Amino acid sequence: MKKKYIILIAFSAFLIAIDQITKMYIHTHYQLGESSPIIAGLFNFTYVRNPGAAFGFLATSHPMFREIFFLAMPPFALVIILLILRGVRDDDTWQIFSLSAVFGGAIGNYIDRIRFRYVIDFLDFHIQEKYTWPAFNLADSAIVCGVSLLLILMLFEKQKSKSEPAKV
After folding, report:
1. What is the DSSP-derived secondary structure letter of residue 136?
2. C-alpha distances out from residue 111 to 108, 126, 139, Å
3. Rg of the Cα trace of the chain?
């Protein structure tokens, strides 16, 4: 098996395990809406059930549409990630880890969707309770970090190709 697929399996499995362990801890030790300050005035663990996507996107859409959409899209996205990974060089470690983070994060949230029909969120950042960021979870973090790194890699690749002399 190629190195990039071993990295995909291992890193994704690690992310999925950590994501599911933390979500199950919150699900079994907190009541819905319960919050515990971790860093006063900045960060809490708050048990939230998110029927939508990131930041509650589509949370208020028709339940039947939401269920079909959120159960159909992740497998589609996972296939796309595998197709992209197929074209990635085995030595392009940053891109492999980025895709693996998105892959693992997507599976982590998909497990919640299949089990509960919502995603468990609990990382609650705010500034003195006045300015709040929507709660999220470790799978969301893996997806955002993976996509952000992919965008950075694409920008560097674009800059690199612009600075190289044209081949004749």
Report:
1. B
2. 5, 27, 11
3. 18
> Which of 19, 112, 124, 140 does the annotation list as catalytic?
140
Do the strands 119-127 and 43-50 form a parallel or antiparallel pair, or are they unpaired? Answer: antiparallel
User: Which pLDDT does position 66 carry in this prediction?
Assistant: 81
Mind listing the pLDDT tens digit for each residue in 106-144? 999 999 999 999 999 999 999 987 899 999 999 999 999
Domain boundaries, the chain: 3-154
> Which residue from 48, 78, 77, 52 is spatially nearest to 66, judged by alpha carbons?
52
From 19, 112, 121, 124, the catalytic residue = 121
At 50 the three-state DSSP class reads: strand
The reported pTM is: 0.88
Q: What is the pLDDT of residues 10-62, one digit of tens each?
A: 999 999 999 999 999 999 999 999 999 999 999 999 999 998 776 667 777 77
Question: CB under 8 Å to 46, separation ≥6 — which residues?
Answer: 33, 34, 35, 36, 122, 124, 135
Our answer to whether residue 121 is catalytic in this structure is: yes
Reported as a pLDDT band with limits 50, 70 and 90, residue 165 is low
